[in-house]
Write a structure and sequence with these properties.
The complex is a heterotrimer of chains A (160), B (299) and C (774). Chain A is 32% helix and 16% strand. Chain A is built from 5 helices and 5 strands, in the order ββαβββαααα. Chain A has a 5-stranded mixed beta sheet with strand order 2-1-5-3-4, with helices on both faces. In chain A, β1 and β2 form a beta hairpin. In chain A, α2 crosses α5. The longest helix of chain A is centred in the last third of the chain and has 14 residues. Chain A starts with a strand and ends in a 7-residue tail after the last helix.
Chain lengths: 160, 299, 774
């Protein structure tokens, strides 16, 4: 049984037929071919699939496709605007916070949400906000530095 | 996952009828953070999942006329854990909710799912036992209420019968002065499933202190440590605290499993209980201990 | 190359050349590639038992399921494969040797149908007694897991013991053990245990295979070793190498588990029967934990003799490696442990036995450190134990015994110049060695620990690198290589070499990812070898290209080549001050005075293969040159122990490694940070819990890795540079090494803090608490 849903993704409106046993992660990657969001575990543990759903971070592998009806989704592809990188993205490049890059999209989306709700986080607050985003390459050290750097750089308005 | 139908019932009666099959072919669905994993792993193969989130009141937190806080069963961990009234008056529950997994998972995981999944390690359960919360259940025979203390019947098992589902958790009006603490031990520093956990709550009035201590992940269900509560109510001096903590350890019924040994868990119940009691006493300073003489028993 | 050469790009830290792709989600990984509606989904039927004969496989119900296009079993593909020892098949044929071993595969229109089809395959097993411990496995009492061991193809430097479960017995014998023990004032022996762990790359193994109508197979693979995959799979399927093309885009982490071949052979097998449709095989996280590669477990007995003034007189070390169902890769880990078996110390009398043992456990393979983290866990604690028993400072004992330039290693190799002593001293100083830790709160104690290490690239004697450099009309250079960026920064390092060698800006260098049809050969992206080996190839290619350019310009301008240079993409004459942009001449040549052209297009090659590694004697492990070189280093750690719960908080990790020459210092530091945290994670959290061969925790719920909250509060990275004689600008690799000493450094710090010694990993809070109970 397919469900017809309407949603916006990175500001673009979509009418989609989705399968209830598919997740939002599958809809994004397979139906919309937005492959920036990654599949790391499909168990809500690693955060590689994190997207913003109505402004709040969720693991898209934990959202059934029909539940996305009416939602506004932001993925990694929607962080930059008008070919200008989000300060977080710039900071990640500057500090060397990516290595293999697989955890990067989920962390950036989650970090964006963190700075939107807490523009000046302490280091413990940053670490705690990232506890559900696993990284095996970097040891998190430069990721934390990058988020601090981006917090200092600031951003005018939060992502819708 | 193998295909299934996704149904959004329009009212409680329809939801109950859908869930009445009772043979595993139909599953209640809210946050999905347990269900989706089990479906993907092939452990559950329902024909249909019933999304309860949109039923009236399921995602609301409100104060009732008689001062109870009513939390809809489909409220997310973040909704509950970051709610002003919960933080102010039921802090131990906020700590329990906010200890689950990660911020992004707490945007999906629900308090009802945590309770109905009924893992002995459920992080909202010890707090709710301490707060003497009441479960509101809808079923074929209408609404019934069950004290949280009686809600869990075994690992992964609750009093819910076929066709029944949790619609809310009711918290009694908070005492004038109260404090609580939730301590859990995991393998990683935070965000883990509890290896063992202890919730402590104290409602203090001028002449009495009502202590509640509940243990998670150290028994077939979350447990109250009744002897520890009584002992602490009689004596909250440092020696009394140590004795109460020891009694809490004795109340635990842990097992050996891949997360920890029974002996370690029992010892940690004692440590976490003592730390929780000490924190609560500090939070209730200066008048945390009632002046003698004490009456026996708790209100 | 012994002086610190002046460089313009090498030694600076430009941003990663693929960094912007990664932060925007534009970077392509195998699962991102679109194959259209014809894509088939592959799934594997796996053994539920640890050891048994396959009595019967019935695939009829699976074949009959609508949407199922291919079903294959071991009978369809019986060929053996393996990197060092051919003891594996693509699918189990007559018997299974591990829970999770693949016995059949399907390809179907959807993932759901593929899963259903796998469930419909019926397999009947006759269960056999299993081997779940390597010491037992090596004993005569154990059932034989590979009765045909004697007939397996094997490289000459591995020594299988037919008729046993020992697939490699590496021996090192040097000096006079009796004299060594007699000279010692203290002789002490202890056993240390390291469980299986998994690499946990964030991207699980994934590949897509497709055969075209003319028989050419393309394999898109998240792999560290596209050329090795081509080699091993082609040989297993008895096809020519040129019929198999391997393409590797970005790789989401490997740490060794994506070296060699794991399930990619199954995807190719399915593709051969899929009538031209592409077949995707993607491991779930659960499968990743135990069906691709794991790090072998180790039971190590360390016996050491030391004089009262701290000189090591003898070591007798025995390593039993829990190799798993197949040890085609693990045999070399046992070997590496053999020739490194003393740790980084001069020991005149040495007896090492390193046994790779078959067990009915997941397949062991290469993991960051290749045996070094496992053996150093025991060795580096043992040195501390000996020092404490003798009342000596463990840092001073290390400085006394650590290998110096000219010392002989345990295999008789002369140690090259090394910064090991510097690394130990600097790490100790940076952690405040000798100064007591600041007082902590109630029930908290703090302590410091240090561990040293060494590791050589573990390779066959002839691993080759090659590179192509060509210039483009816009003045950029394209570098083609066979090595893979798995996150370590290989593409960026190569861009720096090319820029340096040519004289152009690093931002004008493009480095291709690997396509074996177009890329020049690279042995594997393992062993921390790319900066050193592939770097040499790229540098040579770039320098050759530079000479092509300058030769042509010299001729056209009638100048001496020594008066010419290329600076930031501009060809200049120091003599006449004439100049011409490289982009103007790279494709079209330089015009002579008579109007003719010379010198284009500019395209150059480079290659490197060490030609000096000698075999080692099978009985003594002695030989002039066991390995190409050793990277050495040390870590010092400060920890806080909660004495009530046993919980550990790592306060600070100091890493000091001798990298020869830091090509990109910031990237070197990120390797130190990442390795330290991965090392810390295995030390505190990780083990694959195996219950008679069945993994109990193949998921993130119960296999925890360090999160951002667990990462140390502080890290410090110290780069030491003692040049490597044949490294590009003196460089040596460092990718693996920062993971090696972390666990013993932490264990040593726990002893310093709380007085308990934990001789098995991981150092869980429960284990520490139990030790504290006495």
């Amino acid at each position: 049984m397919t469900h017809r849903i309407q949603l916006t993704v990175n500001g673009e409106h979509y009418d989609l037929d989705v399968q209830p046993h598919h997740t939002l992660l599958q809809v994004l990657r397979e139906q919309l071919v937005l492959t920036g969001t990654k599949n790391g575990c499909e168990a809500g543990e690693c955060g590689a699939c994190a997207v913003l759903m109505n402004g709040e971070p969720v693991n898209s592998c934990m959202v059934l496709a029909p539940e996305a009806d009416g939602a506004a989704i932001t993925t990694i592809e929607g962080l930059a605007s008008d070919a200008q990188l989000d300060p977080l993205q710039e900071a990640f490049v500057a500090t060397g916070a990516t290595q293999c890059g697989f955890c990067t999209p989920g962390i950036l989306v989650n970090a964006r949400a963190l700075l939107d709700r807490n523009p000046d986080p302490t280091e413990p607050e940053i670490r705690e906000a990232l506890v559900g985003n696993l990284c095996r390459c970097t040891g998190y050290i430069r990721i934390i530095d990058a988020i601090e750097m981006a917090a200092r750089a600031g951003r005018k308005e939060p992502v819708q | 996952m193998q295909p299934f139908d996704y149904v959004v019932p329009q009212d409680f009666a329809e939801a109950s009828a859908l869930l009445a099959a009772g043979d595993g072919s139909v599953r209640a669905f809210q946050g999905g953070t347990d269900l989706i994993i089990r479906m993907r792993g092939g452990f559950l193969k329902p024909d249909r999942v019933v999304d309860l989130k949109h039923l009236p009141g399921m995602r609301e937190i409100r104060l009732s006329d008689d001062g109870w806080l009513v939390i809809g069963a489909a409220c997310t961990m973040n909704q509950v854990g970051l709610h002003g009234v919960v933080l102010e008056h039921y802090g131990v529950l906020a700590e329990g909710c906010n200890s689950v997994a990660s911020y992004q998972l707490r945007n999906r995981a629900t308090i009802g799912g945590n309770l109905c999944n009924a893992s002995p390690a459920a992080d909202t359960a010890p707090a709710l036992l301490c707060l003497e919360a009441v479960a509101e259940i809808y079923g074929p025979a209408g609404v019934r209420r069950v004290p949280m203390n009686d809600f869990f019947t075994g690992p992964g098992r609750t009093v819910l019968q076929a066709g029944e589902f949790l619609i809310g958790v009711h918290l009694p009006p908070a005492a004038g002065r109260s404090a609580g603490a939730y301590n859990k031990l995991g393998r990683t520093k935070i965000g883990d499933i509890s290896m063992v956990s202890v919730a402590v709550n104290c409602a203090a009035s001028a002449d009495a202190a009502t202590w509640r201590i509940a243990i998670g992940a150290a028994g077939p269900t979350p447990l109250r440590a009744l002897d520890a509560e009584r002992s602490l109510g009689e004596d909250a001096s440092p020696e009394g605290v140590a004795r109460a903590a020891e009694l809490a350890g004795k109340a635990a019924r842990p097992i050996d499993d891949i997360r920890g040994s029974a002996a370690y868990r029992r010892a940690m119940v004692q440590v976490l209980a003592r730390r929780g009691i000490e924190k609560v006493l500090a939070d209730l300073e200066p008048a945390s201990r009632p002046t003698p003489p004490l009456t026996g028993g708790q209100s | 190359m012994t002086e610190h050469q002046k460089t313009h790009v090498v030694g600076t830290s430009p941003e990663r050349i693929e960094g912007r792709d990664k932060v925007t989600g534009a970077a392509t990984y195998v699962d991102d590639i679109q194959f259209g509606p014809n894509l088939l989904w592959g799934a594997l039927k796996r053994s539920p038992i640890a050891h048994g004969l396959i009595v019967r496989i019935d695939t009829s119900k699976a074949r009959a399921l609508p949407g199922v296009r291919v079903v294959v079993t071991g009978e369809d593909f019986p060929g053996y494969m393996g990197l060092y020892l051919k003891d594996r098949r693509i699918f189990a044929l007559d018997r299974v040797r591990a829970v999770g071993e693949a016995v059949a595969a399907v390809a179907a229109d959807t993932k759901e149908i593929a899963e259903q089809a796998v469930a419909l395959i019926e397999v009947e097993y006759e269960e056999l007694p299993g081997v779940f411990d390597p010491e037992y496995g090596a004993s005569p009492d154990a059932p034989l897991l590979h009765p045909d061991l004697g007939s397996y193809e094997c490289v000459p430097f591995v020594f299988p013991q037919p008729g046993t479960n020992v697939s490699n017995w590496m021996k090192v014998r040097k000096g006079d053990m009796d004299r060594g023990w007699a000279e010692a004032d203290l002789v002490f022996e202890h056993k240390y245990r390291v469980p299986h762990v998994q690499h946990v790359p964030l991207e699980t193994h994934v590949c897509v295979a497709q055969q075209d109508p003319n028989g050419k197979i393309t394999l898109w693979s998240s792999s560290q070793s596209p050329f090795a995959q081509r080699n091993l799979i082609a040989k297993a399927l008895h096809i020519n190498h040129s019929r198999l093309r391997v393409i590797t885009p970005n790789v989401g982490g490997g740490f060794g588990c994506k070296a060699g071949v794991s399930m990619e052979g199954a995807a190719v097998a399915l593709a051969l029967r899929a009538k031209g449709r592409p077949v995707k095989l993607r491991m779930t996280r659960e499968e990743e934990f135990y069906t691709t590669f794991v790090r072998q477990g180790l039971v190590a007995t360390i016996r050491m003799g030391m004089t009262r003034d701290g000189r090591i007189t003898a070591m007798q070390n025995t390593f039993y490696w829990d190799g798993g169902a197949s040890t085609e890769y693990g045999v070399n880990i046992a070997r590496a442990a053999g020739y490194s078996g003393t740790g980084p110390y001069f020991v005149p009398n040495i007896h090492v036995d390193s046994y790779c043992v078959y067990t009915n456990h997941p397949v062991g393979g290469a993991m960051r450190g290749f045996g070094m983290p496992e053996i150093h866990f025991g060795i580096e604690q043992h040195i501390d134990v000996m020092a404490h028993k003798l009342g000596l400072d463990p840092v001073q004992v290390r400085l006394k015994n650590c290998l110096k330039d000219g010392d002989e290693t345990l295999t008789g190799m002369t140690m090259h110049p090394t910064g090991l002593s510097q690394c130990i001293s600097k790490a100790a100083e940076a952690i405040g060695w000798g100064q007591p830790s600041a007082p902590a709160g109630p029930h908290k104690v703090r302590g410091k620990g240090l561990a040293a290490m060494w590791k050589a690239p573990a390779m066959p004697p002839n691993p080759g690198s090659s590179a192509l450099v060509r210039l483009n009309e816009d003045g950029t250079a394209t570098v083609s290589i066979g090595g893979v960026d798995i996150g370590q920064g290989a593409l960026t390092a190569m861009a720096q070499f090319a820029a340096e060698g040519l004289g152009i800006k690093v931002t004008d260098v493009r480095v291709n990812t690997v396509d074996t049809d177009y890329s020049p050969y690279e042995w594997q992206t393992v062993a921390s070898r790319l900066t050193w080996s592939m770097g040499n190839a790229v540098l040579r290619a770039a320098e050759t290209a530079r000479v092509q350019v300058l030769t042509a310009v010299a001729e056209a301008w009638g100048e001496d080549i020594d008066d010419l240079d290329i600076i930031d993409g501009m060809v200049v004459s120091y003599k006449t001050e004439e100049s011409v942009p490289l982009k103007d001449i790279a494709i079209y040549g330089v015009q002579r005075k008579d109007g003719t052209f010379v010198g284009a297009p500019v395209v150059a090659q480079g290659r490197f293969m060490p030609d000096y590694v000698t075999p080692l004697d099978a009985e003594t492990g002695q030989g002039p040159r066991a390995v190409v070189h050793f990277t050495t280093g040390a870590q010092a750690v400060e920890v806080e122990v909660d004495t009530e719960t046993g919980e550990l908080q790592v306060l600070k990790i100091v890493s000091a490694f001798d990298v020869g020459r830091a090509i990109n210092p910031e990237m070197v530091r990120t390797q130190m940070e990442g390795g330290a945290v991965q090392g810390m994670s295995t030390a505190l959290l990780e083990s694959i819990i195996l219950d008679r061969g069945r993994p109990r925790n193949p998921n993130f719920t119960d296999y925890r890795i360090a999160t951002a909250v667990d990462a140390p509060l502080e890290t410090e990275n110290i780069i030491v540079e003692v040049p490597q004689d044949d490294g590009p600008f003196g460089a040596r690799g460092v990718g693996e090494h920062p993971m090696v000493p972390t666990a013993p450094a932490i264990a040593n710090a726990v002893f310093d803090a709380a007085g308990v010694r934990i001789d098995s990993m991981p150092l869980t809070s429960q284990k520490v608490w139990e030790a504290l109970q006495g």
